[in-house]
Every structure is written in structure tokens, then in C-alpha cells.
Design brief:
BirA Bifunctional Protein, domain 2; 3-stranded antiparallel sheet; 40% helix; rod-shaped; binds zinc ion
Length: 343
């Protein structure tokens, strides 16, 4: 019987070594340790032995039983651990890969480019490092104009361009130099928008930033007058803020237009009734515009007697702040992901 026990033990251990599923393990357990199992039978037989035989065989049988049971528990634990590691819960939400996305100003810029492209305007980009000529002189901005002050403009010193000389270089303070560049390159008639980054030497606060975006617009043709300007700006306002949007133009001086105006759209939030966004005026000031000054046409190489034009400039940061209810302009260049991820 002793040999039979030892043989059975080897058999069980060999069997357990090959087990690779919970069902197979359970099958073996029933076969050997179940109520009618082979090991159980032997253990019962031991109980019927004489007292002396029981003394030696009983201990061996119990040791083997204990060892086998432990081995079964060990295999069970290993199988469960393996099952847990390879288990895939298809109902869990997936881990989303972080995708890059557009900056709020880019979103708005693309939107405005699209709506002007639909009206036959081409989209141009120009240099951020400009010459004094394109940024000021050609735009009818006289040498004593306050915009030329070093307080407002970043002049760039190079050995070839001493600051404040006729040909000095500067970071453009507006996208308007593109009016001249476009006229020189394409002549007339002309329909163009030019979005881009501008720079001013400003102390920053919630409404002022040294780097900001504008979108310049220019249309040149024979017989262009103020009503053309108004129609184009009304149309773009409706596309930007909804079909009920109204345009209001109020006289404002800009050196490169005559006459010049500030453009305001009726507040999209309160429909003109007055709210916090429009500071209870019912209007949102978002652009400057006017009819192109004859001196500017001449600087662009066009004859003001033949051609007339209108120009406008949207402040893209201001538009984005209104559209997305952003209360601090400095957030745009903060690089703060908590801000950027909202768009
Ligand atoms: Zn309002």
C-alpha cells in the first residue's frame, strides 16, 4: 500500500504539471481527491488497517494528502493569476491618444479666410519683419505720427539699418503693409485678405498684448465706394455671428483711409439689448475700415483717378475673445494646455 501511495503521488504530480486550464485542474481534483477519488479510496482503506500499520502508513498517507492539496492550491492560484493578466474587459472605455488641435485664433482665422475666399478674395501672407516704408511711409503715416514712436514700435537694429533712419527695419505693427505689397504685386482690380501676427511695444494687461493677430482686407476696382465696403462687412458679420447681425460704422481717423470708420457688430449674445459682453451698449467693436487714401493707392503704384478701393482690418484676438468668452488676451500666448484644450 505504501508503494501504491507513492506511485499515486507521482501520477498526480505529473498530471498537475500538465494542467493548463481551470477545468482540467478541477477534473484532476475530482479524479483523485473527490468523494470517490483514487486517493480518497486509499485513505479510507488506511482507516481499516491494524493499529501498527495505521501508525506508519497513516502518517505517510496524510503527508501525501497534504502535499497534494497544497500543490492543487498552488496550481489554482497560478491559473487565476494568469487568467487575470490576460483578461480583456471589452466594456472598459478606451485610452484615447492625445491629438493635437487648432489654436482658437487659428480656428477663427480659417473661418474668416473661408468666408472671404467665398466672396472671391485671395489669401496672402506677408513678412513680420517689415521696413519703415511698408509699415508707415507708404500708408500715409507721416514722420511725426505717434504710431512711429519707439514706445509703440519694436525697431530692429542691424549694422545696415540704424534705427529710425528712412530704411529702418521693424516688427510690423499692423497687417496694413500687405495693402501696398498686394497692390505692387498684383495691380488692380484686386481682392485680398491678409491675416498675420503684429507686434507693439506695449505694457500687457487683460486687454493688451505685445503680440496679436489682425486680418487685413483690401478691394480695389473702378468705382468702388463706401456702400461696397458696407455690403462686404455686413455679409461677413452675418457669417461670423449669425444672420440677424447688424453693422454700425462710426467715423474714425486712420491715416491710410479717407473717410475712415470703426466697425461694430450688434452683440450676438444679447442681440443688441445690452449685456456684460457688450458692456450694455449692444455693439461689439471689432474692426477698423475706410476707403483707401489716394496717397496709399499711389504708393501701391495705382492711379487714384482710375481706381478706388476699400480696406478693413479685423482684430482677431478681440474677435476670438468675444466669440469664445475669453476675458484675458494673455491666455492666447500663455501655452497653458488647460486653456488650449477647451477648443
Ligand atoms: Zn450684448
Amino acid at each position: 500500500m505504501e508503494e501504491k501511495l507513492k506511485e499515486l503521488k507521482q501520477q498526480i504530480l505529473a498530471g498537475l504539471g500538465k494542467v493548463n486550464s481551470a477545468d482540467a485542474r478541477r477534473g484532476l481534483e475530482i479524479k483523485y481527491l473527490g468523494r470517490k477519488g483514487e486517493l480518497t479510496k486509499i485513505l479510507r482503506a488506511v482507516a481499516d488497517l491494524s493499529a501498527t500499520e495505521k501508525k506508519t502508513l497513516g502518517k505517510l498517507a496524510n503527508d501525501i494528502k497534504k502535499e497534494i492539496q497544497e500543490k492543487f492550491a498552488e496550481v489554482k492560484a497560478a491559473l487565476e493569476k494568469g487568467a487575470k493578466e490576460s483578461f480583456v474587459d471589452a466594456t472598459l472605455p478606451g485610452i484615447r491618444a492625445e491629438a493635437g488641435h487648432r489654436h482658437p485664433i487659428t480656428i477663427l482665422q480659417n473661418e474668416i479666410e473661408d468666408l472671404f475666399a467665398a466672396m472671391g478674395f485671395m489669401v496672402l501672407e506677408g513678412p513680420e519683419l517689415e521696413s519703415d516704408f511698408y509699415n508707415f511711409t507708404a500708408l500715409n503715416i507721416p514722420p511725426d505720427h505717434p504710431a512711429r514712436d519707439m514706445q509703440d514700435t519694436f525697431y530692429v537694429e542691424t549694422p545696415l539699418n540704424p534705427p529710425l533712419s528712412g530704411g529702418s527695419l521693424l516688427m510690423r505693427t499692423q497687417t496694413s503693409p500687405m495693402q501696398i505689397r498686394a497692390m505692387q504685386k498684383y495691380g488692380a482690380p484686386l481682392r485680398v485678405v491678409a491675416p498675420g501676427r503684429c507686434f507693439r511695444s506695449e505694457a500687457t494687461d487683460v486687454r493688451h498684448e505685445h503680440t496679436f493677430y489682425q486680418l487685413e482686407g483690401l478691394m480695389i476696382d473702378r468705382g468702388i465706394n463706401f456702400s461696397h465696403l458696407k455690403a462686404v462687412l455686413e455679409e461677413s458679420g452675418k457669417k461670423l455671428f449669425g444672420p440677424e447681425t447688424k453693422l454700425r460704422l462710426r467715423p474714425k481717423y486712420y491715416p491710410f483711409v479717407e473717410p475712415g470708420a470703426n466697425g461694430e457688430y450688434s452683440c450676438f449674445l444679447c442681440a443688441g439689448r445690452g449685456c456684460r459682453l457688450c458692456k450694455n451698449t449692444g455693439w461689439l467693436e471689432v474692426l477698423g475700415c475706410g476707403l483707401v487714401h489716394p496717397n496709399v493707392l499711389r504708393a501701391g503704384g495705382l492711379d487714384p483717378k482710375k481706381y478706388q478701393g476699400f480696406a478693413f482690418g479685423y482684430g482677431l484676438d478681440r474677435l476670438a475673445m468675444l466669440k469664445y468668452a475669453i476675458n484675458d488676451i494673455r491666455l492666447f500666448h500663455s501655452g497653458d494646455l488647460r486653456f488650449l484644450k477647451q477648443f
